[in-house]
Amino acid sequence: MRRGSPIMALLVMVAFWVAALYIPIGTLYAQDGEKAPVYSYTGVKKCKTCHNLAKYGAQYKVWVETAHAKAYETLKGEEAAAIAKEKGLEKPAYETAECLECHTTGYGASAEVRGAKLTIEEGISCEACHGPGSGYYKKKTMTGLSDGSIEPASVGLTLPDEKTCVGCHNEKSPSYKKFDYKTFWEKIKHSKPEAK
Ligand code: HEC
Ligand code: HEC
Ligand code: HEC
Ligand code: HEC
Q1: Closest CA to 173 of 106, 81, 92, 83
Q2: Alpha-carbon gap, residue 100 to 105, rounded angstroms
Q3: Which among 190, 191, 194, 196 is the best mutation to test ligand 3's pocket, defined by most ligand atoms within 8 Å of the CB?
Q4: Are the C-beta atoms of residues 152 and 159 closer than 8 Å to each other?
Q5: Residue in 40, 99, 44, 94 with CA at minimum distance from that of residue 69
């Protein structure tokens, strides 16, 4: 009994293979059944065409004055060079993945998802927080989102909250400043016209 019968060993092996085969197959089917559409980035200029207008709240005008709009530029500055030196980075900060992933939009996404218009120079732009815009940027969709007839997630729009911020505002940032949602949001807030 101690060494186990050959039948037991066989059963264990069969059970193992059944499990090994079925788990991945199950997962594949689950993903296939509800295959999520792939949204791509439009770039901030697309959002600007409407969101620069006062009647829609002119969120672009607010954003362009925030630190987020300069997040890539910052990586070219002296302070970034000093951090890079201290960390012993092989390349300048503005070419280092470890810095670009928090200082630019859509870093590491496939070419298909990045699309042709998104640039690294725009830093942390609308879509870094609101999600890639290809599924929601059209006027009809935007209006439907605004009046509640369209579910944001169904077109890839995120209505961000504190969790979105701490994806970047955390201790992995070499210059981390304690993050407080209320005071930080106050510095970048941009709402719909009627909410002001
Ligand atoms: C063709 C014009 C147009 C473009 C382009 C556009 N928007 Fe909008 N957007 C609107 C309009 C109109 C509203 C509704 C405004 C209102 O109700 O005050 C809106 C509303 C929104 C809302 C609020 C939705 C809600 O649930 O209330 C967000 C967030 C938003 N836009 C983000 C973006 C982002 C990010 C981009 C670029 C990827 C973008 N928009 C591009 C016209 C546009
Ligand atoms: C994709 C990464 C990312 C996300 C998400 C993000 N931020 Fe930032 N944020 C940055 C970076 C990078 C900087 C520094 C930019 C610079 O100085 O060049 C920054 C700077 C700021 C600053 C200026 C801080 C200062 O010391 O002056 C404020 C305020 C801010 N963010 C608020 C927010 C809020 C509120 C949210 C969530 C709604 C948010 N951020 C989400 C990356 C992000
Ligand atoms: C750093 C993250 C961040 C960036 C960058 C950002 N937003 Fe937002 N946006 C938010 C958050 C957070 C809210 C507030 C959601 C709420 O009302 O609580 C918001 C709200 C909005 C709203 C109002 C939604 C509502 O229901 O009142 C619009 C419209 C909007 N953003 C458009 C834009 C546009 C256009 C840009 C680029 C020019 C942009 N946002 C850039 C985080 C961001
Ligand atoms: C986890 C996200 C994250 C990473 C990774 C990151 N940063 Fe930042 N960086 C931020 C945020 C957020 C800020 C805004 C200040 C804060 O709250 O930390 C910022 C601010 C800065 C600033 C301005 C400092 C200031 O006083 O506001 C510099 C310079 C900088 N980062 C350089 C770098 C360099 C160089 C790297 C790569 C070695 C890097 N960052 C990696 C998120 C990040």
Answers
A1: 83
A2: 8
A3: 190
A4: yes
A5: 44
**Closest ligand, as measured to the CA of 76:** 4
Asked if residue 50 lies in contact with residue 56, where contact means CB atoms within 8 angstroms, the answer is: yes
Q: Is 114 in the pocket of ligand 2 (CB under 6 A)?
A: no
- Residues 6+ positions from 183 with CB-CB distance below 8 Å: none
Structure tokens at 110: 């496939």
Backbone angles phi, psi at 64, to 5 degrees: -65, -20
171 pLDDT band (50/70/90 cuts)? very high
- Structure-token pair, residue 36: 């999520």
Instruction: Establish whether residue 191 lines the binding site of ligand 3, counting it when its CB lies within 6 angstroms of any ligand atom.
Output: yes
**Residue nearest atom 3 in ligand 1 by C-alpha distance:** 50
Structure tokens at 169: 């505002």
The larger pLDDT score, comparing residue 96 to residue 24, is at: 96
pLDDT band at 3 (very low <50, low <70, confident <90, very high): low
At 107, phi and psi to the nearest 5? -60, 135
With the most atoms of ligand 3 within 8 angstroms of its CB, the residue from 44, 46, 104, 126 to mutate is 126
Q: From CA 193, how far away is CA 196, in angstroms rounded? A: 6
Counting atoms of ligand 4 from 1, which one is nearest the CA of 178? 17
